[in-house]
From TrEMBL:
UniProt-recorded name of the protein: diphosphomevalonate decarboxylase
Organism: Seonamhaeicola maritimus
Keywords: ATP-binding, Lipid biosynthesis, Lipid metabolism, Lyase, Nucleotide-binding
Entry's Gene Ontology BP terms: isopentenyl diphosphate biosynthetic process, mevalonate pathway
Gene: mvaD
Pfam families, sorted: MDD_C (PF18376), MVD-like_N (PF22700)
Domain Mvd1 C-terminal: 198-329
Domain Diphosphomevalonate decarboxylase-like N-terminal: 13-175
GO CC terms of this entry: cytosol
Keyword Lipid biosynthesis carried by entry: yes
InterPro entries: GHMP_kinase_C_sf (IPR036554), Mev_decarb (IPR005935), Mev_diP_decarb (IPR029765), MVD-like_N (IPR053859), Mvd1_C (IPR041431), Ribosomal_Su5_D2-typ_SF (IPR020568), Ribsml_uS5_D2-typ_fold_subgr (IPR014721)
Annotated GO MF terms: ATP binding; diphosphomevalonate decarboxylase activity
Family named by the database record: Belongs to the diphosphomevalonate decarboxylase family.
Amino acid sequence: KTIEKGSVTWESPSNIALVKYWGKKESQIPANPSVSFTLNDCKTTTTLSFSKKKSEDAFSFDVYLDGEKKDGFKPKIETFFKRIEQYVPFVKGYHFKIETSNTFPHSSGIASSASGMSALALCLTSIERGLTGDVDDKYFTQKASFLARLGSGSACRSLEGDLVVWGQHHEIKESSDLFGVKYPFEVHEKFKNYQDTILLVDKGEKQVSSTVGHNLMHNHPFAQERFKQAHINLSALIKVFKEGDLDEFINIVESEALTLHAMMMTSMPYFILMKPNTLEIINKIWVFRQETGSKICFTLDAGANVHVLYPQRECEQVGEFIKNELVAHCQNGQYICDQIGFGAKEI
Ligand code: PMV
C-alpha cells in the first residue's frame, strides 16, 4: 500500500533508571540489564508529517523544536535514520517534518533523548503500521522500542510503564537486549505513584556525552565486575518490588547511582560529573533520613542533577524538606516534581 502524505503525533515520557545501563556492545546492545521507572510529566510530544518524494537516494527531513527550525539536531537524527533504515525501509521514500516540544526546559540538564527518541520511533512505527496494515499491539510496542533503542539505548524503556526492563536477565524470561519490556512481576503497593522530584543542580551542557561514556566501559578495569553486579542488583530488586522492602530499595538504588559515577571516576580518561551541590544534597538526604525515618533516597544520571525518590505517602513531609533545605542547592532554585507514569500515547 502507498500513502502520499499524512501525519502522526505521539507523546512519550522520560524514564529514570534504578539499575543503570552503562556500557554497550555493537548495535546498541547493552552490556548489562537495566530497569527504570517511567516518568509522568517529563515528556516529549512529536508530530511527524510525511510526504512521498520522487527519489529514494537520501534521507530528507527538517526538525523543529517549539516551532523553531533546528538544523543542529540533524546529524543525530541522520545517524538514527541510517541505523533504522534496514528495519523501516520506507523512510527513504518520504520527506519528513519532525515537530517536537518538551514539557521540561531544553538544556535543563534533563536528557530529552529518551523521551524524544521514543516519541520519534513511535511515530515511525505508526506510519509503518499504516502502510503495512494491522499489526497487534504487542508487536507494535516491541518494534517501536526496538527502533527507539537504536536512537538512544535508554529510550527503549520509555514506551510503557510503570517499570520497564531492558536487557536479558535469567529471572525475566520476557527480557531482551533488543527492546524494553514491561516489568512482568508483582509490584508492592508501596511503589504505587512513587515520586521523583528532579533537582536541577547544573543545567550546563553535558560534560560527557553518553556515547563517550558508554565507550569508557571498554577496557575499563572494573567493567566485568560491574556488569555482574547489575544482574545481582536486578535480582535483588525483583524481591524488593514484590515484598515492598523500602530500606533494601534505598540500598540498591543509591548504590547503583554511586557506582555509575564511580565507573566514570575510574575510567581513562576520568570524569567527575557531580558538583559540590550534588554532594550537599546527598548529605542532606542522608541526615534527613536518619533523623526522620523517611524512605527518601536519591539517584543520578550521567550528570550533576539529583532525582529524589520517595513514596507517595511521604509527599507532604518530603515536599517541605525539599523546599526548605534542598532547593537552595539548585541552579536558580529550579526543580521538577514528577512521579511514576504509564508510558507513551498517541495523540
Ligand atoms: O540512553 P543513553 O545512551 O543516553 O544512556 C543513558 C545512560 C544512563 O542514563 C546514565 C543510565 C540509564 O540506564 O538510563
